[in-house]
Amino acid sequence: MSCWETLADYGLRSLGYGERLLPRSDFTLCQQVVLIGSGMIWNIYFGVLALLSGFFLATAAAVGKASTNPVLQRLSNGFIFVFRGSPLFIQFFFAYFLFVALKGVSPVFDAFSAAWLGALIVLFLNTAAYSGEIFYGALQSVPKGDMEAADAYGLAGWARFRRITWPTMLRLAWPAYTNEAIFLFHATTLVYFSGFPALQQRGDALYYASYFADKTFNPFVPYPILAIYFILVTLGILALFGLVNRRLNRHLPQEQRARMKFRPNLLR
Amino acid sequence: MYRAARATDASIGTTAIFSFCTDPGTLGDAAWMACYLTTGKHMALYWSVGTVLLLLAITAPVSLAFGFGGAAAARSSVAPLRWFGKTYIALVRGVPDIAYFLFFVIALDQAFEYVRHKVKCPDWDQPIRQGNDFVVCAAAKLPLGNAPQWMHETYGFFLAVLTFALVFGAFAANVLYGAMRAVPRAQMETAEAYGLTRRQCFWRILVPQMWVFALPGLSNLWMVLVKATPLLFLLGVEDIVYWARELGGAKTPRFTDYPHGDWRMWYFLALLVFYLFLTWVSERVLARVMARLTHGQATVAGEAARKAA
């Protein structure tokens, strides 16, 4: 079987298209690369959607945490503490069994116990909490002079937030937020190890990598393949976020611009 | 492979703690709950909480030592040692760590068995990698095929600790490497001016002063380590996640004295609260340690503490 046939059979296997049976013996390198790559579709799906939706809740949480209203402040603080203070792994498990229990209450919740929605919600809340803390930190370090200048120009309320506070906050938070994005993509690998079932063996990249490692007793091929895929994703994120960073910093002189710095990514 | 040898379900005695637990079917709610939460399997759950704390207690110092070794090696003037240190630090970046957890456990296991195979069975002529199989002689198996169950469990736990320590050691090495570079250059220059040797500079000036720079990073790392402990489950150790799933599942009256529906949600809620508590306590303690360490340091916080005193 040529590699092109393998690609045609397994390229979209993680979405349920193509060959149903996973390879069971005589594993070729091509099969491993294709299937693990196919699994990456899910990692990218979870990462992109959670990041996009989480961004808005994160902004809200940061503004809430920085607000003077005690109710909003406590709410945001509690939200951030719960999702940053507990392991994502346990959050996944809890959410999954919660959704399973809710399924018994009403059929509305049927979709929630599937990974594509349930895990996405957990990742969305989780990344919102982590980014919320980053944005809060940035909000606290918006230069005083900028705000005074805004006052002098007669900007207040929403206009001041929209035109001065928010862009500055984003500019300050962006390097850290980039790391958070990378970190989130890594966290997507936990989904299929935490309760959420991979129906008909439609899993993510790590699911297939560990499938091959278990079948071949040889971790030295699938995990490096997985690693290469993730390094590619990481480089992609760095490039994309670097462009945004350039735009956010475009009004500043060269040496004052925030440098994108790649920090080691830890698990959550 | 210890995974294959793992017992399916340890039969744990069902001796009750409370005397009134002989016939749970007749009990009221509170008494039933008291009996339910003290069954043998729940005791195993509480023990596994101890396992988590034990893992933290062992891993934290070991990975700190690995990190210190890595950071010191990365600063070394001997080139191969420096390359080793830098590679170790760089290796763990950029890849999901859970992949390392899955990778290291098999890789370490096979490495140990391979070395033992080479030492114990020198006249073995078959290849070790036979296609998809990893074959070593019986004497090189770890633990030995006839070893008792607790040996298998301890070996699994040992591998888990080593894996955690290797991964977190690399993170700690990165933090400590940064902290060593953050110690004011003037301090080192003064030490050199006083005629201290390289080694003396390192141990007497650099190491005592670096901790205050390392602490924010290290406390972050501690939080991450706490939150990484549920991954023990993936390494095949019977930890709290395993027991929560096991105990929470619906039970019918045929197999247990305490039948109940699917309670896994509540078990994981309890775990969530447990971890939040652990985080909360850690935050308190680390804040105090930071206050203690900034005492007398040439930093902004140290200066503020001096003025306040």
From TrEMBL, chain A:
The keyword Zinc does not apply. It is a multi-pass membrane protein. It is found in: Cell inner membrane; Cell membrane. InterPro entries: AA_ABC_transptr_permease_3TM, ArtM/GltK/GlnP/TcyL/YhdX-like, MetI-like, MetI-like_sf. Gene3D superfamilies: MetI-like (1.10.3720.10). Its main location: membrane. Keywords: Amino-acid transport, Cell membrane, Membrane, Transmembrane, Transmembrane helix, Transport. Residues 40-244 form the ABC transmembrane type-1 domain. One of its GO terms (biological process) is amino acid transport. The keyword Transmembrane applies. GO terms for molecular function: transmembrane transporter activity. The chain crosses the membrane at residues 44-63, 75-99, 111-130, 181-200, 220-244. One of its GO terms (cellular component) is ATP-binding cassette (ABC) transporter complex. Belongs to the binding-protein-dependent transport system permease family. HisMQ subfamily. PANTHER family: L-CYSTINE TRANSPORT SYSTEM PERMEASE PROTEIN TCYL, MEMBRANE COMPONENT OF AMINO ACID ABC TRANSPORTER. NCBIfam families: HEQRo_perm_3TM. This is ABC transporter permease subunit. It comes from Thalassococcus profundi.
